[in-house]
Design goal:
Layout lengths: L1 H40 L3 H14 L7 H13 L6 H22 L1
Length: 107
């Protein structure tokens, strides 16, 4: 019986680590894509930092990426940047890859 309990705890522990890593990747991705968007909008260093944090916060509005995409696209178009949904999604994908790389290297 202890073998089963040990296996169950190991699976639970692995699941928790994977969920934490997924959360960290998403948060870092949002920060990276927020920095990218801030650069396109011509924000200062302080404004870029605040904007990147706002993008991270926007991800807590609803499940999935649509809340982040909506924020980025709305802010970029509002700032007069020629942007479309496809480019934002592509930037989000690229930022995901980079965030995963950065976190794996830091371990």
């Amino acid at each position: 019986m202890t073998d089963f309990s040990d296996r169950e705890r190991a699976f639970e522990s692995q699941f928790a680590r994977e969920e934490e890593m997924a959360f960290r990747i998403t948060a870092r991705r949002n920060r990276l894509v927020g920095t990218w968007a801030a650069g396109l909008m011509g924000l200062t260093a302080e404004e870029t930092d605040a904007y990147a944090k706002a993008v991270v916060q926007a991800d807590f509005e609803e499940a999935g990426d649509e809340d982040v995409i909506r924020k980025l696209l709305g802010d970029l178009v509002g700032a007069g940047v020629d942007m479309d949904d496809g480019r934002v999604r592509s930037a989000l994908h690229d930022a995901t890859v980079e965030a995963r790389r950065q976190l794996l290297e830091s371990q």
